[in-house]
Amino acid sequence: MGRKWNNIKEKKASKDSNTSRIYAKFGREIYVAAKQGEPDPDSNRALKIVLERAKTYSVPKAIVDRAIEKAKGGSEENYDELRYEGFGPNGSMVIVETLTNNVNRTASDVRAAFGKNSGNMGVSGSVAYMFDATAVIGMEGKTADEVLELLLEADVDVRDILEEEEAVIVYAEPDQFHAVQEAFKNVGIIEFTVAELTMLAQNDIILDSDAQVQFEKMIDALEDLEDVQQVYHNVDLGE
Question: Would you tell me the Gene Ontology cellular component terms (predicted)?
Fold first, then answer.
């Protein structure tokens, strides 16, 4: 644990060039979630989770509304959810989650991003077994002990509760995402520093400086791809 999710989020959102990219990815994800079920977060669990995540990245309401209206309008645009797994330098492992309307293009682009940066794609399952699907929810203004007591009173089970910088981060099973949030909302906590369903590596590794530079280039190349929604890895990139 202890991936410092606040720092990662702020690092991504701080670059103007990345901001539009992040918003575009959320717009696509919101559209897909709304199209697959009811375009109402109260009755669509997947959509509700995406919207909670979008809040922590300050995605503008206009982008959210446009994506939902597009789904309501019966757009024929369809996307496939695909996962790719691969390896980077010195034992690094990567999971790439995509939403695509052109599977061949996406597979080619992902393979090229790996191959041009000292990596290679693996077969399905070659990497994922070393990661755990995890709900990560963070907030400020409480101590870890206070959060533990709050969750115990709400009868919500979690994996871990850690104080990271000025925030308290809760790690839980994915199916506890809403239960954790509701426990907080019931005591007036409605703003979250992070609210993610993610894949956490069971063990992080540290690369030497040259390998880390190459690895970061590979991650940047993957994240820059239009069809890529999330990239997870097992490398501790430090501060």
Answer: cytosol
Find out whether 106 and 77 touch, Cβ atoms under 8 Å: no
Buried b (16+ CB within 10 A) or exposed e, 176-194: bbebbbebbeeeebeebbb
Q: How far is CA 117 from CA 100, 114, 145, in A?
A: 22, 6, 44
Is the domain 80-129+203-233 a CATH 3.30.70.980 member?
A: yes
pTM here is 0.89
Q: Under CATH, domain 5-72 is a member of which superfamily?
A: Integrase, N-terminal zinc-binding domain (1.10.10.200)
Q: Read off the pLDDT of residues 2-43 as tens digits, 9 standing for 90 and up.
A: 454 544 454 445 444 578 888 999 999 999 999 988 888 889
- The helix/strand/coil state of 89 is helix
pLDDT per position as a tens digit, 76-129: 889 999 999 999 999 899 999 999 999 999 999 999 999 999 899 999 999 999
**Mean pLDDT, the chain, whole residue set:** 89
What residue type is 64 in one-letter code? Answer: V
Length of the chain measured in residues:
239
Q: Could you tell me if 234 and 198 are in contact, meaning their C-beta atoms sit under 8 angstroms apart?
A: no
Tell me the CATH number for domain 130-201.
3.30.70.980
Cα(4)–Cα(145) distance, integer angstroms: 19
- Greater model confidence, 238 or 62: 62
